[in-house]
Specification:
Helix content is 32%, strand content 26%. By secondary structure, it is an alpha+beta fold.
Length: 191
């Protein structure tokens, strides 16, 4: 999952923090090259899927915490993890359905309230979703004090917890349109 996302954002030149895949069995000596990442800290994320339980995404304040975090991932049976540089700013979460049927950004926590252009965030999210071929998705971005938007995560079929009513309607409409398009394509293919 994350390998596909990281490759897609690089190929499409989207704003995304530098991220590297690590084997959870890596020798601690090999982790020394990441010391410079830990001025503002870093994030360790499971590599196979988006966060599904507590501990799947871990904030690391110090480089010295990296090896023990990898050991905890390994003890859970995870073979790989992604180390991602920290981006300072406000976290904004969003939920979306392809084609502008729904876009729901919000601040999940206390924040500074840095201003940002919602249309720019929407365009970045849609571009990233298109790059990994997902239509019903959610994600996270960081808004810098200057208003720069950096995507930090994207995943398909999120909970839509704060906007389930609006999401249900948008998802149903999208799925009906997709079904109708397939049905109409089959009709024209058999004629």
């Amino acid at each position: 999952y994350r390998d596909y996302l990281c490759a897609a954002v690089r190929e499409n030149d989207l704003d995304f923090p530098h991220s590297e895949f690590l084997d959870t069995h890596v020798h601690p000596k090999e982790l020394e090259r990441f010391q410079s990442w830990f001025g503002p800290g870093a994030w360790l994320k499971r590599a196979d899927v988006h966060a599904t339980q507590p501990g799947d995404v871990v904030r690391l304040e110090r480089w010295s915490d990296l090896n023990s975090a990898l050991v905890r991932f390994r003890e859970r049976g995870l073979k790989q993890a992604v180390l991602q540089k920290h981006c300072a700013g406000d976290e904004v979460k969003f939920y979306a359905v392809k084609g502008g049927r729904l876009f729901w950004p919000y601040y999940p926590n206390d924040s500074e309230g840095y201003p940002f252009d919602e249309n720019t965030l929407r365009a970045l999210a849609e571009h990233a979703a298109k790059a990994i071929d997902i239509a019903i998705y959610g994600g996270d971005a960081i808004i810098s004090p200057e208003g720069k938007i950096t995507l930090i995560d994207l995943n398909d079929w999120p909970s839509f917890a704060p906007c389930r009513g609006a999401a249900a309607s948008a998802i149903a409409k999208f799925l009906k349109e997709a079904y109708d398009a397939i049905k109409n394509h089959r009709k024209t293919a058999t004629v």
